[in-house]
Write a structure and sequence with these properties.
heterodimer, A: 142 residues, alpha/beta, Rossmann fold, five-stranded parallel beta sheet, 5 strands, 18% strand, B: 525 residues, mainly alpha, Amino acid/polyamine transporter I, two-stranded antiparallel sheet, 20 helices, 2 strands
Chain lengths: 142, 525
């Protein structure tokens, strides 16, 4: 649906913070919140059907967890959960495109900035590639 | 819940990018097929051992060894259709022959993957020092082992975290590897005719005749050379939808075959022409390093070393990934501790299995370095036993699983009957024959002494000569690790019998997926 808020959720502290912000944004715009998780298994090295199923179940568990957390925060916000079998960045971008989203909300890499540099950081890639606004929410300091 | 339906919708929109499943192009499919076999590393590790077994007839062995791999690839292709699990041989054999044999097949995969690790690390260590000109260090044991251990640690971390090179980078790396090997072969051959380097010999047609030496030598040669094609078949028989799913996989298979067989034969011919085949045997631990300096000037020599290193890294990756996934598949089907199915929540990789495999590899590598005088030689030969074991099992599984369809058409007769069966028989023969060859210390070019010398017999039935005096290190490692699986399987069966309650299956259809392999108790995936 046009105007949805897409939340990239993978269960970390950063994405828990992003979830709180995303719920607030969805409430403010009276928009649907889509809790999304992208996952992909590498096809290098042969067939991966059972591995892919295990990962898919993990992705579905995560978005279900995010959905429950969002509903617990504010039962008035409409929430959907979507697990997408694509790389995280691709998953969020294609969802945002399909649903003509208002914005994408993700957690920041503030916990492990160096790891983000080495492995590539989802918020960083999103900021460069997304055609809709991206909101990066820092994880609260302990 | 909207989850799954939405996922399907979103998945349907997936475009073509990188190595994403569902969108492999012709070039990517070919590249994965060739890169999985790691030509430069395979040659560096095995060329000297092949010439040790068959002398100048090594080009023939390169061709002959391809046949069983090609035949078994047909089995992989059809079994993948029924059951595209990453357990491969493990799940297929469980269906076709039974859970006990299937379990041993899975064990065979894991042990084979483990056995190749020391050779990968050894090559990585040696060629790293060669690259920086520290040839003295490269010939020592200690620092090579240190770098080798670091290599395993770093590659395990890369697999754990799930870093992948983009398709374009892989094409570039593999392309340069092939080009460097081809240039190496051409330059070597030109110099053979122009400069006559010491010991050089001109290529002859008899090099391509595999049936000149003894059958034992042929078997030993094949046992060594199946290793160089190892991985090609798994990569090339992936049934994922390609850009043009009707044509791409077939064309990619043919292309990668031509590239692989071509480069192996040409490099083998060139390498043994240059200083003779004995020179390769003598330098079996460092063939391309030793030859490279003489064939190339310093710049190209370094490029050759780099090609071997990138090739070894690709090969390490395509060893650790499938090993961890085989363990995952066994755990999912309750044939191994459940922890091996744990997925790292952050990186979505089989984290526990990956780390355990890396750790065991380090222990195995260091242990082998301490007790073996020739880590590389022993590993590659031992590896041959493992590959022959589980590939042969796969071939038999294909024929047994599809037995009702074998006679339905000529194509089926060839592809799911004759080819897998002949491939499996060839590998079984190479396995058994090699047991006798490598149990005789006189046949061991690696200069290793035999263990268990009390096992001794020597007799002739008709014109078959049976001789066994002790067991050489490759035999102890290769066959010993497989045999350890037996008591382990019985132990696991005592504790967790569910997996072993599966009934055997046969294929209902030739194209359709097999019914799920679910234990009677609990819910498998």
């Amino acid at each position: 649906m046009a105007g949805d808020i897409i939340l990239g959720y993978e269960g970390s502290r950063g994405s828990a913070a992003a979830l709180r912000t995303a719920v607030a944004v969805a409430r403010a715009f009276n928009a649907t919140l889509v809790v999304a998780c992208g996952y992909e298994v590498s096809p290098v090295g042969g067939e991966v059907a059972d591995y892919a199923k295990v990962v898919q179940r993990l992705g579905e568990e995560k978005v279900a967890e995010g959905l429950a957390a969002a509903r617990a925060l504010d039962p008035t916000v409409t929430v959907e959960a979507v697990a997408v079998p694509e790389r995280p960045v691709e998953a969020l971008l294609s969802l945002a495109g399909q649903r003509q989203a208002r914005c994408i909300v993700v957690g920041g890499n503030s916990e492990r900035p160096l790891l983000g540099v080495i492995l590539g950081s989802v918020p960083h890639k999103l900021l460069h590639r997304s055609t809709v606004p991206v909101l990066v929410v820092p994880a609260p300091e302990e | 819940m909207a989850t799954r339906q939405a996922a399907v919708e979103a998945g349907g929109e997936a475009g073509s990018k990188g190595l994403k499943s569902g969108a492999l192009g012709l070039v990517s499919t070919t590249v994965i097929g060739v890169a999985s076999t790691a030509p430069a590393y395979s040659l560096a590790a095995s060329l000297g051992l092949v010439t040790a077994a068959v002398g100048v007839h090594s080009p023939a062995i390169m061709l002959v060894a391809f046949l069983p791999m090609l035949f078994i690839a047909a089995a992989y292709y059809y079994l993948n259709r029924a059951d595209p699990d990453c357990g491969t041989t493990f799940t297929w054999v469980t269906r076709a022959i039974g859970p006990k044999t299937g379990w041993l097949g899975g064990w065979g995969i894991l042990m084979t993957d483990l056995v190749v690790m020391p050779s990968l690390s050894q090559i990585a260590g040696k060629y790293t020092f060669d690259l920086f000109g520290a040839h003295g260090v490269a010939n020592g044991v200690f620092w090579v082992t240190v770098v080798g251990v670091l290599w395993i640690v770093v590659m395990t971390a890369i697999c754990y975290v799930g870093i992948e090179l983009s398709a374009r980078t892989q094409v570039a790396l593999l392309g340069s590897e092939i080009v460097i090997l081809a240039v190496f072969a051409v330059v070597a051959l030109i110099k053979v005719y122009a400069n006559n380097p010491s010991g050089s010999i001109h290529p002859a047609l008899t090099w391509f005749n595999p049936f000149v030496g003894s059958s034992g030598a042929l078997a030993a040669g094949v046992l060594t050379a199946v290793f160089i094609y190892w991985g090609w078949d798994t990569a090339v028989t992936v049934n994922e939808e390609c850009d043009d799913s009707a044509r791409t996989p077939g064309v990619a298979a043919v292309l990668s075959t031509l590239i692989l067989v071509g480069i192996y034969v040409i490099v083998t011919v060139a390498a043994q022409s240059f200083h003779g085949s004995d020179y390769l045997t003598k330098n079996s631990a460092d063939v391309l390093g030793a030859l490279g300096r003489d064939v190339f000037g310093s710049v190209f020599y370094k490029l050759l070393l780099l090609a071997v290193l990138t090739s070894a890294s690709a090969s390490t990756q395509t060893t650790i990934l499938p090993a961890a996934r085989s363990a995952l598949s066994m755990a999912v089907h309750r044939a191994a501790p459940a922890r091996f199915a744990d997925i790292s929540p952050r990186y979505l990789t089989p984290g526990f299995a990956t780390v355990v495999f890396g750790a065991v590899s380090v222990v195995w590598y260091v242990g082998l370095t301490l007790i073996s005088k020739n880590v590389l030689g022993d590993s590659i030969l031992a590896l041959g036993f493992g590959i022959c074991f589980y590939y042969a099992l796969t071939g038999y599984a294909c024929v047994i699983y599809y037995r009702r369809h074998v006679l339905s058409s000529l194509k089926n007769l060839v592809l799911i009957g004759v080819a897998p069966l002949v491939g499996a028989l060839m590998l079984t023969w190479a396995f058994l024959k090699s047991v006798f060859v490598y149990s005789n210390p006189a046949n061991s070019s690696t200069g290793n002494s035999a263990y268990f010398k009390f096992i001794h017999f020597d007799f002739t039935v008709w014109h078959f000569h049976f001789y066994l005096k002790g067991l050489g290190p490759p035999l102890v490692i290769g066959v010993g690790l497989l045999i350890i699986g037996l008591p382990l399987m019985w132990l696991w069966r005592l504790g967790r019998p569910e997996f072993f309650e599966h009934a055997r299956q046969t294929a209902e259809t030739l194209d359709g997926p097999a019914p799920p392999l679910t234990p009677r108790t609990g819910s498998g995936v």
